[in-house]
Amino acid sequence: MVTLGESRRPERVGELVLRELAQMLLRDLKDPRLCGVTLTEVRMSEDLRHGKVFFSHLEGKERAGKAIAGFQSASGFIRRRIGRTLGLRYTPELQFEFDPGTERAMRIDALLRESRSKH
């Protein structure tokens, strides 16, 4: 039987991974391909062995591929740091994915402002 606390564990671990990754972006990851990256969400699998890290980029989708390459080149460092900091039984394998939500929201906001200025 799964208790309420256990069912939320992937969500809580995802938040911890997100927080630690954000700190790494600020302090440790100096790869120029990661400049302009904002982390938006981390979704963990139920067994906590895999996580999807979603990010946006100031320059939009065009820079997403380079940012993913930057994350992949630092993946060993990222996994070691997360494993050491969070003290999980298994260090999760992380996959990085561009989150188009922020870009879409900015486009909608621009369209709304344009619409208002015409009236």
Task: Set down the secondary structure blueprint.
Elements: H1 4-7, H2 9-27, E1 37-44, E2 50-57, H3 64-73, H4 75-86, E3 93-98, H5 101-118
Parallel strand pairs: 2-3
Antiparallel strand pairs: 1-2
Helix pairs in contact: 2-4
> Would you tell me the structural class of the helices and strands?
alpha+beta
Shape: globular
Average pLDDT works out at 89
Task: Please state how the strands of the largest beta sheet are arranged side by side.
Answer: 1-2-3
In short:
It is built from 5 helices and 3 strands.
Can you put this structure into words, describing what you see?
The structure is a single chain. The protein has 119 residues and is of the alpha+beta class. The protein starts with a helix and ends with a helix. 19% of the residues are buried. It is built from five helices and three strands; from the N terminus they run ααββααβα. 53% of the residues lie in helices and 18% in strands. Helix 2 crosses helix 4. The mean pLDDT is 89. The protein has a three-stranded mixed sheet with strand order 1-2-3, sandwiched between helices.
